[in-house]
Automatic annotation (TrEMBL):
A Pfam cross-reference name: IP_trans
Annotated coiled-coil segments of the chain: none
InterPro entries given in the database record: PI_transfer, PI_transfer_N, START-like_dom_sf
Protein name in the entry: Phosphatidylinositol transfer protein 2
Span of domain Phosphatidylinositol transfer protein N-terminal: 1-61
GO molecular function per UniProt: phospholipid transporter activity
Lineage per the UniProt record: Eukaryota, Viridiplantae, Streptophyta, Embryophyta, Tracheophyta
Highest taxon in the source lineage: Eukaryota
SUPFAM superfamilies registered for this protein in UniProt: Bet v1-like (SSF55961)
Length: 66
């Protein structure tokens, strides 16, 4: 599995803009890595499912979240 994500942050605040940008990018990277680690660790639950079953799971999760 390969995943790419482009994140652009511009904090034009003199004095702490650079620190703010770095903190936000570090947080985004941590979220990105954690979500992909979870996706890989749950591979046994979703590997081999048909597209129809996956669509049904999407509908169930969408209805429970909304």
């Amino acid at each position: 599995m390969t995943a790419y994500k482009l994140v652009t942050i511009d904090a034009p605040y003199w004095g702490f803009g650079s620190r703010l940008e770095q903190a936000l990018l570090a947080g985004e990277r941590a979220i990105f890595l954690e979500s992909h680690r979870n996706c890989f660790s749950w591979i046994d639950e979703w590997f081999g499912l048909t597209l129809d079953v996956m669509r049904e799971l999407e509908k169930q999760s969408d209805s429970s979240l909304n």
